[in-house]
């Protein structure tokens, strides 16, 4: 590895960021840390993961808090940590969900998920 001053040092651990093996190793490790763990401990909670970004869909805020606590513990046991500002519980608000929560939108893979007003042709109203 070359340092900013031009000197070279031998790499003794890890893989270089951007290296071709890094995403493969990351996906293998996260499959064990997250995917298989979710399937075993929360089989009814739908989730998705792309590389190191993921979502877990919960029915209640209490379920979300519980899974978040368990995931923090799981990641810590595997010497990982959840991103402190990207990890959050988001209330997916729509016309049928009237609750008031501070976080009602999120961005996943470059797309912002938020409430959008749409016309409901069955009820002839806007949600």
Q: Can you describe what's shown?
A:
This protein is an alpha+beta fold and 127 residues long. The chain contains two helices and six strands. It has helices at residues 22-41, 61-77, and strands at residues 47-50, 53-56, 106-108, 111-113, 119-120, 125-126. The strands form three sheets. A two-stranded antiparallel ribbon has the order 1-2. Strands 3-4 form a two-stranded antiparallel sheet. The chain is elongated. The N and C termini lie far apart (56 Å). The mean pLDDT is 87.
Quick structural gist:
Helices cover 29% and strands 14% of the residues.
Sheet having the most strands = 2 strands, antiparallel
Taking Cα atoms only, what radius of gyration do you get, to the nearest Å? 20 Å
Gross morphology is elongated
Order of helices and strands: HEEHEEEE
End-to-end Cα distance = 56 Å
Average pLDDT over all residues: 87
Strand content: 5-15%
Write down how many β-strands occur, each being a DSSP E stretch of 2 or more residues.
6
Q: If helices are DSSP runs of H or I spanning 4 or more residues, what is the number of helices?
A: 2
Percent of residues in helices:
25-40%
Derived structural class: alpha+beta
Low-confidence runs: none
Q: What is the strand arrangement across the widest sheet?
A: 1-2
């Amino acid at each position: 590895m070359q340092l900013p001053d031009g000197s070279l040092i031998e790499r003794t651990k890890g893989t270089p960021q951007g290296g071709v093996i890094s995403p493969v190793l990351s996906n293998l490790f996260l499959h064990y840390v997250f995917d298989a763990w979710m399937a075993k401990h929360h089989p009814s909670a739908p989730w998705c993961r792309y590389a190191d970004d993921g979502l877990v869909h919960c029915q209640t805020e209490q379920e979300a808090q519980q899974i978040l606590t368990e995931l923090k513990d799981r990641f810590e046991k595997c010497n990982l940590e959840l991103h402190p500002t990207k990890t959050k519980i988001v209330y997916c608000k729509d016309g049928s969900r009237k609750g008031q929560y501070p976080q009602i939108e999120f961005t996943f893979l470059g797309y912002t998920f938020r409430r959008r007003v749409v016309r409901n042709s069955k009820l002839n109203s806007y949600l």
